[in-house]
Amino acid sequence: MANSKYGYVKRFEADDAVLPECWIVVRLDGKGFTKFTAAHGLAKPSDERALSLMDRAAQEVMHEFRDIRIAFGESDEYSFVFHKHTALYGRRASKLLSLVVSLFTAAYVRFWPHCLPDTELQQTPCFDARAVCYPNNKTLRDYLAWRQADTHINTQYNTCYWALVNSGKSGKEAQEYLKGTQTAFKNELLYREFKINYNELPARFRKGSVVFWKPPTSLDPSSRSQKHALMVQHEDIIKDAFWEQYPHILS
Amino acid sequence: MANSKYGYVKRFEADDAVLPECWIVVRLDGKGFTKFTAAHGLAKPSDERALSLMDRAAQEVMHEFRDIRIAFGESDEYSFVFHKHTALYGRRASKLLSLVVSLFTAAYVRFWPHCLPDTELQQTPCFDARAVCYPNNKTLRDYLAWRQADTHINTQYNTCYWALVNSGKSGKEAQEYLKGTQTAFKNELLYREFKINYNELPARFRKGSVVFWKPPTSLDPSSRSQKHALMVQHEDIIKDAFWEQYPHILS
Amino acid sequence: MANSKYGYVKRFEADDAVLPECWIVVRLDGKGFTKFTAAHGLAKPSDERALSLMDRAAQEVMHEFRDIRIAFGESDEYSFVFHKHTALYGRRASKLLSLVVSLFTAAYVRFWPHCLPDTELQQTPCFDARAVCYPNNKTLRDYLAWRQADTHINTQYNTCYWALVNSGKSGKEAQEYLKGTQTAFKNELLYREFKINYNELPARFRKGSVVFWKPPTSLDPSSRSQKHALMVQHEDIIKDAFWEQYPHILS
Amino acid sequence: MANSKYGYVKRFEADDAVLPECWIVVRLDGKGFTKFTAAHGLAKPSDERALSLMDRAAQEVMHEFRDIRIAFGESDEYSFVFHKHTALYGRRASKLLSLVVSLFTAAYVRFWPHCLPDTELQQTPCFDARAVCYPNNKTLRDYLAWRQADTHINTQYNTCYWALVNSGKSGKEAQEYLKGTQTAFKNELLYREFKINYNELPARFRKGSVVFWKPPTSLDPSSRSQKHALMVQHEDIIKDAFWEQYPHILS
């Protein structure tokens, strides 16, 4: 930046570097997406095309910022996990979260016509973002488990809610009907009343999307194409199996 | 957010609310725009269409966040000033800066075809953002003066640089030639060698863009259309005249 | 600090410099002083000697840190106001608050025998501290007014409470009796029942202590002795009069 | 605190709670102790009585704040390690560091006559303090190793320096003589010139002081007296042996 007698105002900028050796999670969340979704006539409770667009934007972010080891998305939110040793932008929280949310949003708008070719973008979408530190693997995995448990709870609830509404109940009646009910009750309701087997819903709806780099193979660990391949899965990341299968993510 | 045994991880989120009664500036800055500009064949040193797109995106942001009193843009950066009494999102820095940068970027991509109809978007652009507090009008005005002084210094330098390059010098030679030169020298160079009168360059290039709400008129202070009208100007905001003409901005 | 391979741990220290051009208030507060007071048999509700000791310690702090412009004390708390332009220790909050609370506590213990010669120190006293920024004179003065209003409210309440207790009521009964009562009622109670004219209580009890540097005189503004003289008063600092009389404090 | 219309100023206080699940180190450091030491004629380079006083004050702090698991002191500094799960004062950095430094300083002044009975306190001593987070055992142990390595380096240097000065060199000459020398050279110098075997200096000088709670015994783990017993040692805490012997400290 050019120098002038006004340059002293730069001293008002605070240092917001985050603690070393902690995992840094940047989580994005759509602003006013209930309205945004309705305005574009997206499917309820989940729209496969819109979710694919989220995944597409997430991959754009991960290709740009290679220190992101894993990302998890559901509904209108996405979490990106920077490696605990990243030195990117001096670990400044505002730099990391602003670049991630900006690139994600740009990709979301840019690739909208690819994923929703028959739906014109009517409004300018936007996302908020925050950066959170987790000091060890346990708390990081609990963070990701928290988001995936949220996916399940929300999807099950919303599937019931929209089934009730589509069968003639008002939104308020549906809400009242579901208040305080447990998982087993909701599964039963879906099955008995609406012939929906919750466990047969697309995995993307029930598990969200997990995006990570393909593990290096023993045959050719240095292969460029391998190293740069992203995997998008809709698997359980709460249990140990996933982490035992892909130990390179947290290593 | 749905509840689960993992919900404790929310406690790792830090409170980043900024000091009350301070002006909050959110400044965006294009990431890698030298390359981005070259990839799209934009005019050097300034591209009127690209600057118009920045102004267009800035207006989208101001229409959404009414507590922004004034914005200033130049080149690939834009600063937005939230009123010192704003209570938006509890004054949390990450919320404010992420929403502004996300909406700005989304609008930038969405309106690209309107402002640059003959240039296809080849890359996903992105911006970083930071939030800075200024505790009084003096420091806020010095901040804005800092950015406008920067506009002048950069535009004058870049105009010389590209004139030299376009006349056959290499980039390195041009840089060497201009090293340590003063304003008067550069004006003289432009005029003598290239018949460019610096002061006749478009005001947008020399002064940047200042965006603010039209002041209420005495005739009809409550007129909705008036209140919602944004003005985009390319005037001096360093001297007092501008602030005396529009006292409502800082009031 | 000596260098070694472990020196990298210094990078975990966060920068906690506070915003420039804001007044910095460091407020100390006695930890567990209800018990501490009882253990030493101090007078209820206010002990002149103990308050003098607080003032003595405050002066020690102000003699050491000349950028403190004014201090205000009541009961077991003291607030110190660093000038908004202070550059002391790079304005790092932890440096400023730790040095102030450490020196204050040291002086409190050191000068205890001077102020309470007949009472042996039985326990090690300690104070917590925090640093708070105020961006303008209005909010700083409101802060000081807040503390002085607190002094009045507490002293009046405690005077009533102890008068009731000393006249035979239990602590619980006294509390119940005073619950929700207004200023006028309490003044009346003191006067009618206990022949105490609240306004004749020592000003130190009702107004707290305000400590500041003697203003420079026109006769000899550079006189060293004058410049280094501290004034301890028990005056109203809520109204304008005090600030009009001593404009040098905030200048 | 009593309520009044000024109470809004409390909103200017920032939340400074530190990240959960991190070790919290509060380090104190004497302000101007070179002068303070000289003013009281303490022994050079290390004064056993003054170091004992530091250890005494540290024990006072640990008896008050039971979540401190270990402390390490050398020269005029002391570090206190709060357990990573402590919830004390909501983990607010300013609360923790101010209470520790205040209590430490109070104890330092209070117990001065016990440890230095023949030396009257001439000045009010004070300490600064900071709080630093360490996210795992490795970085915490490296922090403590950093301080103990510092102890060795400083003590060896200072022992040489004062031996040279006491033998007739000026301070500047001694400094010049030692500039850039290695450990082996300094040990040799002490031994050859001054008949000092560095390794026979008191362990307190070479290793500093480590203070921690006695481990629970299998015979009577709930014995109150045991649980409340502090150990003060001058042992190596850089190597693993100490931590293997006392695994309860970090558990």
TrEMBL record, chains A, B, C, D:
Quote the catalytic activity from the record: a 5'-end ribonucleotide-tRNA(His) + GTP + ATP + H2O = a 5'-end phospho-guanosine-ribonucleotide-tRNA(His) + AMP + 2 diphosphate + H(+)
Q: Which UniProt keywords apply?
A: GTP-binding, Magnesium, Metal-binding, Nucleotide-binding, Nucleotidyltransferase, Nucleus, Transferase, tRNA processing
Which prosthetic group or cofactor does it need? Mg(2+)
Q: Could you confirm whether the keyword Iron-sulfur appears in this record?
A: no
**Which terms in the GO cellular component ontology are assigned?**
nucleoplasm
- Protein family membership: Belongs to the tRNA(His) guanylyltransferase family.
Residues reported to bind GTP:
S75, D76
UniProt-annotated location(s): Nucleus
Q: Start and end of every Thg1 C-terminal domain?
A: 138-221
Signal peptide feature range: none
**Where does the tRNAHis guanylyltransferase catalytic domain start and stop, copy by copy?**
6-135
Taxonomic placement: Eukaryota, Viridiplantae, Chlorophyta, core chlorophytes, Trebouxiophyceae
UniProt-annotated binding residues for Mg(2+) 1 = D29, G30, D76
**Where this protein primarily resides, as one coarse class?**
nucleus
InterPro entries, alphabetically? Thg1_C_dom, tRNAHis_GuaTrfase_cat, tRNAHis_GuaTrfase_Thg1, tRNAHis_GuaTrfase_Thg1_sf
GO biological process terms, semicolon-separated = tRNA modification
Which PANTHER family does UniProt cross-reference here?
Answer: TRNA(HIS) GUANYLYLTRANSFERASE-RELATED
Enzyme category, top tier: transferase
Q: Name one GO molecular function term.
A: GTP binding
Q: Please give the name of this protein.
A: tRNA(His) guanylyltransferase
